[in-house]
Design brief:
The protein is α+β, with helices and mostly antiparallel strands. It contains three helices and six strands. The protein has helices at 5-30, 34-39, 59-72; strands spanning 41-48, 55-56, 75-88, 93-105, 111-123, 130-143. A six-stranded mixed β-sheet has the order 2-1-6-5-4-3. The longest helix has 26 residues, at 5-30. Residues 11-135 form the SnoaL-like domain.
Length: 148
């Protein structure tokens, strides 16, 4: 059965709100804004960073991991592209896949280029779209030599 006009408008609004959640991950992380970064997660959200960093199982663990990351990698710039969002209207959830390019400078001052993919799950059960899971797949993390 085709979607009604109201369902189509609701999906467009939800898609825009989810893209804002994805963008606020970057803004919160890169600008070290704890309030923005922590507001994008459901209470028992999973942040799976893969090996060797592991997985966080709730907002408390996410905050701990964030602070360790900021200590070890004091400068980052994330750029998320190729966002594809799918909806499970019946359960008020959505999934997305997107690619990320990032630059980072670790605490020793070594710059790196990172390429990866995000596999995300979202919920709006609190009335606001938030992550219930973000799985990060790093394809490469390459140190960059200075160009002279």
């Amino acid at each position: 059965m085709p979607k009604t006009l109201e369902e189509r408008i609701n999906e467009l609004e939800a898609r825009d709100q989810i893209k804002e959640v994805i963008a606020n991950y970057n803004h919160g992380y890169d600008k070290r804004d704890i309030e923005i970064f922590m507001d994008i997660w459901e209470e028992n959200a999973i942040w799976d960073l893969g090996d060797p960093q592991g997985s966080c199982q709730n907002k408390e663990e996410i905050l701990e991991r964030l602070q360790i990351s900021w200590r070890d990698i004091p400068q980052t710039h994330h750029y998320t592209v190729n966002i594809v969002i799918s909806f499970d209207r019946k359960n008020g959830e959505a999934t997305s896949i997107s690619d990320v390019d990032a630059t980072a400078i670790n605490k020793e001052g070594v710059p790196s280029i990172v390429a990866g993919t995000y596999y995300d799950k979202f919920s709006n059960r609190t009335g606001k779209w938030r992550f219930i899971e973000r799985k990060v797949k790093i394809h490469h993390l390459t140190p960059v030599s200075e160009v002279r």
